[in-house]
Amino acid sequence: IPPIQYLVPPFSRGARGDRISNIGGIMPPIQYLVPPFSRGARGDRISHIGGIMPQLSNSNFHLPYNPKLTAIAKQMRQNPTPAERKLWQDCLRYFPFRVLRQRPIDHFIVDFYCASLKLVIEVDGESHFTQQGKQSDAERTAILEGYGLRVIRFTNVEVLENFEGVCSELQGLIPPNPP
Fold first, then answer.
1. Amino acid 17: pLDDT
2. Close Cβ partners of 83 (under 8 Å, ≥ 6 residues apart)
3. What is the pLDDT of residue 131?
4. How distant, in Å, are the alpha carbons of 71, 106, 123 from that of 78?
5. Which DSSP string corresponds to the chain?
6. What residues form DSSP beta bridges with 32?
7. Which residues fall within 8 angstroms of residue 96, CB to CB, at 6 or more apart?
8. What integer pLDDT is reported at residue 65 of this predicted model?
9. φ/ψ of residue 38, rounded to 5
10. pLDDT at 99
């Protein structure tokens, strides 16, 4: 499944802040992989139909956060799957960088999130192997990658039966000169 692509907004800002139309032939519309919404510096939502996606490295950028998912995420942290529990208890809890469990990002709750590495770790159960599950995961991954995040997926079976391999793969993601 190809990643979701959104059209560049019809207007952008010039160096002085004036609007430059892409429709008038100055700039042809280009397609970029960006999520449909982000949060501005004040926390307001910016539509990518009429706004420009901020860069993740910009200190004013914050990942979109849906406070309505907080209670669900808390409940999911209290009742993890056996694979999530094992990965957390025996590996990610002692990871060299802070890892958050069941973190709301946009309108998703990701299993694990490491902000320092811009990394999302997902542990997938059987529901992810259906045609609908695969399509949903592909769309979700495309949106998260649009925020500059790297998404890595493991199956429950991989975590439970090849735990050392999973931990080695995660350790391999740590850069030689950490941020």
1. 43
2. 123, 125, 154, 156, 159, 160
3. 83
4. 11, 21, 16
5. -PPP-EEPPSEEE-TTS-EEETTTTSS---EE---SEEE-TTS-EEETTTS-PPPTTSTT------GGGHHHHHHHHHS--HHHHHHHHHTGGG-SS--EEEEEETTEEEEEEETTTTEEEEEE-GGGGSHHHHHHHHHHHHHHHHTT-EEEEEEHHHHHHSHHHHHHHHHTTS-SS--
6. 6
7. 174, 178
8. 84
9. -145, 180
10. 96
Amino acid at residue number 66? N
Token digits for 70? 């907080």
CA angle 4, 138, 126 (to 5 degrees): 160
What distance in Å separates the CA atoms of residue 91 and residue 94, rounded to the nearest whole number? 6
Residue 102: φ, ψ to 5°:
45, 65
Which of the residues in the chain have pLDDT under 70?
1-61, 178-179
Burial label for 24, CB within 10 Å (0-12, 13-18, 19+), is: exposed
pLDDT at 21: 41
What amino acid is encoded at 156 in this protein?
A: N
